[in-house]
Amino acid sequence: xxxxxxVVIVGxxxxxxxxxxxxxxxxxxxxxxxxxxxxxxxxxxYQVATAGLAPGDIAAPIRQILRAQKNATVMMxxxxxxxxxxxxxxxxxxxxxxxxLAYDFLVLATGVAQSYFGRDDFARFAPGLKTxxxxxxxxxxxxxxxxxxxxxxxxxxxxxxxxVVLVGAGPTGVEMAGAIAELARAxxxxxxxxxxxxxxxxxxxxxxxRVLPTFHESLAAKVHARLERMGVEIRVGRPVEQIDxxxxxxxxxxxxxxxxxxxxxxxxxxxxxxLGAATDRAGRVSVEPDLSVPGRPEIFVVGDVAAxxxxxxxxxxxAQVAIQGGRYVGRTxxxxxxxxxxxxxxxxxxxxxxxxxxxxxAVLERxxxxxxxxxxxxxxxxxxxxxLAEFNNKLLVFTQWVxxxxxxxxxxxxxxxxx
Amino acid sequence: xxxxxxVVIVGxxxxxxxxxxxxxxxxxxxxxxxxxxxxxxxxxxYQVATAGLAPGDIAAPIRQILRAQKNATVMMxxxxxxxxxxxxxxxxxxxxxxxxLAYDFLVLATGVAQSYFGRDDFARFAPGLKTxxxxxxxxxxxxxxxxxxxxxxxxxxxxxxxxVVLVGAGPTGVEMAGAIAELARAxxxxxxxxxxxxxxxxxxxxxxxRVLPTFHESLAAKVHARLERMGVEIRVGRPVEQIDxxxxxxxxxxxxxxxxxxxxxxxxxxxxxxLGAATDRAGRVSVEPDLSVPGRPEIFVVGDVAAxxxxxxxxxxxAQVAIQGGRYVGRTxxxxxxxxxxxxxxxxxxxxxxxxxxxxxAVLERxxxxxxxxxxxxxxxxxxxxxLAEFNNKLLVFTQWVxxxxxxxxxxxxxxxxx
Lengths: 419, 419
Description:
Shape of chain A: elongated
Radius of gyration of chain A: 22 Å
CATH topology of the domain at 120-264 in chain A: FAD/NAD(P)-binding domain
Oligomer: homodimer
CATH architecture of the domain at 120-264 in chain A: 3-Layer(bba) Sandwich
Number of helices of chain A: 11
Largest sheet of chain A: 6 strands, mixed
Strand order of the largest sheet of chain A: 5-2-1-9-21-20
Helix content of chain A: 25-40%
Strand content of chain A: 25-35%
CATH class of the domain at 120-264 in chain A: Alpha Beta
């Protein structure tokens, strides 16, 4: 294998995997580095957090996904820096300390973490939703609040515990609100003797002027109305000022809450710092039209951590941007290795936007097409099962969903870990 | 509901649940207390530890199991003692501290924990297999050893990491050995580039003279031979003298190992200490023929934590003893409340013993019937699916098993938590 160009990819999310797969037939050696052993299907993470799916249903070992791609090697290790001059990626390996991995091409697909806009002290009380550990911890908090409420005598104390505040009304906040409302009103309805789960409060707080800011106004209004019909209290244009053990302060109003979740913002991983590269105001790496780093044509940045403008607007942080970017970069590298001319600049093709609100209701927009209701929900379910297919998880999710749909039950109501 | 006799049950395992269900139609109020929110189907725990099943597949919320039983209330709390004079159970409740729960009848079904025979310092290096947290931690250790080995250059270091030592060759040790051998030889075979998973060593160590000491000698010999054909190294009659970060010392021989598991012994939970009751040498509560505590006819002890002799031999710590004991106690309480005469003494009816060794092979004995091979394996699978049925988990496990059987894959290969 000596002499074959070496492509090192950091991150086994949508972008990194797409890049690796696009190189399947290229005469290169691919090394994919991730700090976890699994690819996570993030669009369904909210279902793990609300006990609908199990962690294993939406995650698959990266090396299992790439097992048949013989030019690809997978390494579970934490990337910590780039020595761009020496063309080496720095990683921490458990038994060996820092190891340098030489590359001819480097693809950074390291994604984003939750951002608390400088209030990192909020993180303790209001976890985000970016990893499986987040999801199982959120699940334990929600189910644990009901369990603790059942042991309390005073109705007021029970009511405080059974208040869930969701900070941020993007797709994740909206999907969480719908799922928690359903969990309380249907799934848990008969399971308690002292607590009435139906009395649980779900409060969705958004600093901006409306829910689903990236969707068309008419769809956002429909989702707003749908959530209110499900009993969700919505506060838009109201910033969160304080979060502590007992609840939140929203625009001067104190809300006692047993569970607070934070999906209000993201910050890019430190790829830009590794490169010493220019960034946009959000900290994402500014890239060339071919997604390479200015002055470093052998380094590419894809997905949420890249700042790429198209028609003057930055590309959104969604799975499709990462998938298409990863695939483009993989093909670009393959062409360069083959001595073929560079491809035209990367162009994102918008496949549309989807958000789901409980069962039987979703909103979908694609170009001028706007759809809401049951048909959009069916499309949502079909598309997600379809994308899961390549990760071997289709059968399990489908079984769970069909079972849940008819029984109103949720199959993964575990409280694990310390309590 | 005032005035109805109050039955408090501690433990939502096989024994506690059976007692609660046997009281479904009795004019009593049942309160079931458990420190977790779920009933755990322990016989399949080794499959979670070896990535075959997900935690949620073999666990169901206790309150979901009892949702339709209107005289039953479930409380998630940690029992800490019994005030037998006042007829009160002491529990720790998160928001309220110590709470006293009055009872007219008390059923203790608190089970056992792993015992290290005085060497509790081993626990850090060699976890047991009694809870879901154990199982996911063992899973992370096994999969993590392969991941770390893939990053190492030296073949000897890789070989040490890829050695799994199982201490204790009862059913759990035997089942783990078979499952890990299969995981390495089949499931992971194609997934690594540097490591050859087939070269992984599985060493089964037993201080006693043979594997499966509770089974007939002829079946134990068959299982021994089967495991050896699968590549498992077996050391019987060899006590473990030392366990540390790097491996074990067995009868003077040092074995470097990346993973060590302990299933060599159990110790009863502290129910005896709560009661100040007499125990057998293992610390289990000595009970009357009706499973009540001597001098305390209103307190019953069932399952692994009870010391009950039958034909001179103590009953084994298996699910069937707990289920039959719990059901007997529930019926006894119902009769007493109804003013009917006491039932005849508890008598365990042996439904047989089963152990499984990888796919297609199990051993079964029931009275004089002894069976080994594929038919026993099919019976094993059928019986386990059947028992899971009442916990709503049948469909998921069945789907997983059929999928795994034909693909040789395992659906739950996640490394979660700190690494």
